[in-house]
Design brief:
By secondary structure, the protein is of the alpha+beta class. It has 13 helices and ten strands.
Length: 327
């Protein structure tokens, strides 16, 4: 017997699912402290499902910067871990952590996030990342974060494992080998316990840390486990990023996109995001159609994709809502 509750959840618009989550945290979340000292409303364990045939799951109740999402995903897919690629493409979603690390390494007092001193300093820092090769090599390297673990996971004997390439190879093999098609090991992990301390130095340990692919009826689905979920700022990015990754891998493997399943661990709203959440929730009565994402069909290798290969069609969101990031 089919689960009608699950069917209803799959068929929901991305904004409906997401706004339901915001309301659920406000109603049921516990007040908790956190690493940043900001304070959160938090709950443990939540899931949302998106049928990628229904449209690209990019929120319409606030504008989400799709170019930032695509560039970051390309950065991950290439195994890059230096801030320079993002800086050169005017993407600033990772700036705060390496800047703070740079200040601490040089025993400089860290100004208040968002202050004039902070904003001036971070602009100067990013400019040096872009123009000073030696400085970039020393302070732009974020350590063994996502892209490194996806493409260059180190083994105890010094070899490297390209997890993304392995998954693609296994999914492609599934077209002729039933044992691969139904495999339960189509997994990529960014949570490398031995590297967590090193990741902490200039970046962050992975928040979206583990994902698994699933092939059935000619469709590729993906489930992400995200241990720490900044629901207002981060989660909309993560949903769109992994939905797009699923579409890319499906194209490479000559499959149709299936579902993207988002599973959250510590799902929270920062205390200084609650006013912004109220604004977004007030737009529930004007949820707009989900856009479509077009991908250049000629691209068949994970390394070959560039920003020009993606076209977001019919995206008509409400204006963006700014909120401070907790560093």
């Amino acid at each position: 017997m089919q689960d009608k509750t699950q069917d209803k959840m799959i068929g929901k618009h991305v904004d409906e699912s997401y706004l339901d989550l915001l309301e659920h945290i406000i109603k049921n979340g516990a007040t908790k402290t956190d690493r940043t000292g900001t304070g959160t409303q938090s709950l443990f364990g939540y899931q949302m499902r998106f049928n990628l045939a229904d449209g690209f799951p990019l929120l319409t109740t606030k504008k989400v910067p799709i170019k930032s999402i695509i560039h970051e995903l390309l950065w991950f897919m290439r195994g890059d871990t230096n801030l320079k690629y993002l800086a050169d493409n005017n993407i600033h979603i990772w700036d705060e952590w390496p800047y703070k690390s740079y200040l601490l390494r040089n025993k400089v007092t860290v100004p208040k996030t968002g202050s004039e001193e902070w904003n001036t300093g971070i602009k100067e820092f990013i400019e040096k990342i872009k123009t000073d090769e030696k400085f970039c090599k020393e302070y732009g390297n974020l350590g063994p974060i996502y892209g490194y673990q996806w493409r260059h996971w180190k083994t105890p004997d010094g070899k490297e494992i390209d997890q993304i390439a392995n998954v693609i190879e296994n999914i492609k093999g599934s077209k002729i080998d039933p044992n691969h098609r139904d495999g339960r090991r189509l997994i990529v992990s960014a949570w490398n316990v031995s590297d967590i301390e090193e990741m902490n130095k200039a970046g962050l340990p992975p928040c979206h840390c583990f994902f698994q692919f699933y092939v059935v009826n000619g469709k590729l689905s993906c489930q992400l486990y995200q241990r720490s979920c900044d629901t207002f700022l981060g989660v909309p990015f993560n949903i769109a990023s992994y939905a797009l990754l699923t579409m890319i891998i499906a194209q490479i493997c000559e499959l149709d996109p299936g579902e993207f399943v988002w599973t959250g661990g510590d799902v929270h709203l920062y205390s200084n995001h609650l006013d912004q959440v109220k604004i977004q929730l007030s737009r529930r009565g004007d949820i707009r159609p989900m856009p479509k994402m077009k991908i250049n069909p000629s691209k068949k290798k994970i390394e070959d994709f560039v920003i020009e290969d993606f076209e977001l069609v019919d995206y008509n969101p409400h204006e963006g809502i700014k909120a401070p990031i907790a560093v």
